[in-house]
Amino acid sequence: MVYQAFYRVYRPQSFAEMSGQHHVKQTLQNALLHNKTTHAYLFSGPRGTGKTSAAKIFAKALNCEERTTNEPCNECPTCISITEGSNTDVIEFDAASNSRVEEMREIIEKVRFAPSNSRFKVYIIDEVHMLSNSAFNALLKTLEEPPEHAVFILATTEPHKLPLTIISRCQRFDFKPLTSSDIIERMEIVLQDAQIESDEGTLKVIAQAASGGMRDALSMLDQVASFSGDSLSVNDALLVTGAIGEDIFYRLAKALQEKDAGTTLSLLDQLIAEGKDVSRLAEDLITFFRDLLLLRTAPNLKDLLELVSADSRFEELAKEFDQDTLYSFIDILAKTQQEMRFSNHAKVYVESALLKMIHLEPQIASIQSNSLANENPDLVNKVEQLERTITQLQQQIQSGVQVNPGESNAPQPRRNASKSSQSIRIPTGKINEVLKAATKQDIQAIRENWAGMLQMLQKSHAALLDEAEPVAASADSFVLKFKYEIHCLMASENPSLRAGLTDALNSRTGKPYEVIYVPEESWLKVRSDFIRNHGLEKQGDNAGEENEERVAGEMMDFLKEAEQEVADPIVAEAEKIFGKDFIEVHDD
């Protein structure tokens, strides 16, 4: 007889033989017991958790000839034929290889025919998420209104890929990953029936490597049995599954604790040389330090340990590590595991993580504070009070409050932060220099090219300068007034806008103007101060009095004209192209 793998030979044939999934078994058995079965079921969950096995058991229970309870008898011709896969009324359909709409239509056409020798015609569609959209649409109407003799059981590992219209017409059962104890219990039954000796450590290694899947566990058990023969050992299980033994973990943890980088990296290189997968190694290290953290914080929950045993040496090792250090180790390894997914140099990431863990500074402050609190609680209170007082004094000094030595403990009002630090600094000196050398020809040249210059800028920069206006210009600089201070601040602190504005003006006028940014309120103040100061200056020497009065008068007239003359940039551009004689401006 051809040899069959363990997961095929020892597939459960009744609900009692199923491992785990108690919520699924109880619901289905109650439905069978009270004749409240429905027409469509959806079994979803990770691979190897019993979805297809539960579907076959449920199909046998529905059609069992001798069923008097909620379990199939597995002895009647119907149960035997379903177990052997020869019953024509229980159809297993693999959607992964038959995803086209033609295959689904062929099934739907045969649904209306009554079962040949059973109560129900059961359709088990495995990997149902692989069906095409057309196949789902063809199945939809049949799921909604099937014949009374038809039952559909859909199995999938990716339920999120199913249309909601399909899911809403099914009773959904979510299969959960099996626990290590459930897997070990099932493997013990298999080994006892196969007359193979083993210890609990070997089965624990296999259960950890299976990651909650019974099929994976039985496959690895079959492989270890083929490698070892009639007696299984922990070393054989570690070699076949690629897992790491407790001794290696213990030596690695001791090297990390002693900050021995050489031993740590040598152990890592040894594991990789033995063929250990680097990604699996990072995952196992996270689980190992999780077990140490569990032994340190909750030593009574030894049943939850996954990698290490409740040995006295690991209990002592857990006490030697600080709790915060273990948390840091897990964080470092978790980040490393994420970064390794996008790199071809996984070994380098694990080496870097181990070196970070070696150079991690211990939480000395917390340890010292705990010991100090145990020795002298009053001293701790005085230190905390002194720290609070120093913090208050530092805040008062930073906020500018005058501190009196006799009133150090009294609360001082804190002044609000100065708004000047958040506003723009007005370059009054540069503006005055521009005003001294300002001419009407310069400001007109700027205003005539302003509209064309805005079109050369980016849209975001042009929008920011939409309400800005040139108000005074000299031969190499001009003052740009903004209606709102926030716009002025944004423009002055934007390097790309400043560079773009200078380049645009240079290309339009042929001069690399320096732009001086000023809000409207500040501009009015600087201009009035300049006019007043200029008026005081003309009261100087009598010899130059007439000349100074003439210059001051021209300057004041120019400033008033520059302030009042707000040329429309579009009109200015039109006048430049067609000439003033051909332009008439009408206000709507």
UniProtKB/TrEMBL annotation:
EC numbers on record: 2.7.7.7
Gene Ontology cellular component annotations, sorted alphabetically: DNA polymerase III complex
Source taxon at top rank: Bacteria
Region of interest (Disordered), ranges: 397-423
GO molecular function: ATP binding; DNA binding; DNA-directed DNA polymerase activity; metal ion binding
Record's keyword terms, sorted: ATP-binding, DNA replication, DNA-directed DNA polymerase, Metal-binding, Nucleotide-binding, Nucleotidyltransferase, Transferase, Zinc
Domain AAA+ ATPase: 37-178
Biological-process GO terms, alphabetical: DNA-templated DNA replication
Catalysis performed (reactions): DNA(n) + a 2'-deoxyribonucleoside 5'-triphosphate = DNA(n+1) + diphosphate
Keyword Zinc in annotation: yes
Ranges of biased composition (kind: Polar residues): 399-411
Family of the protein in this entry: Belongs to the DnaX/STICHEL family.
Protein name (record): DNA-directed DNA polymerase
Organism: Sporosarcina pasteurii
